[in-house]
Design brief:
It comes from Cellulomonas avistercoris. This is DUF3185 family protein. Keywords: Membrane, Transmembrane, Transmembrane helix. This protein has one domain. The chain is mainly alpha-helical and about 70 residues long. Helix 1 runs antiparallel to helix 2. It is rod-shaped and about 55 Å long. The longest helix has 29 residues. Helix content is about 75%, strand content about 0%. The mean pLDDT is about 85.
Amino acid sequence: MSARHIPLALTLLGAALLLTAGSLFYFGFSAAEETLDLPYSPSPLQLVLGGLGVVSIVLGGVAAIRRAAAGTA
């Protein structure tokens, strides 16, 4: 992997982390709904995964914009 792949890699990593956090939230909410243990709040792991996903996507976007501005796209 070369330096030009970093924006894409960060964006894909962020998407994977957000999908993982979303699926954990969905299954956690479904389990809470079945046991009537509502309101459901996300676990710290879900919040960390979601936060890392958002940060990774933002960093990927920033890296892509900086590469385009530098003319090395």
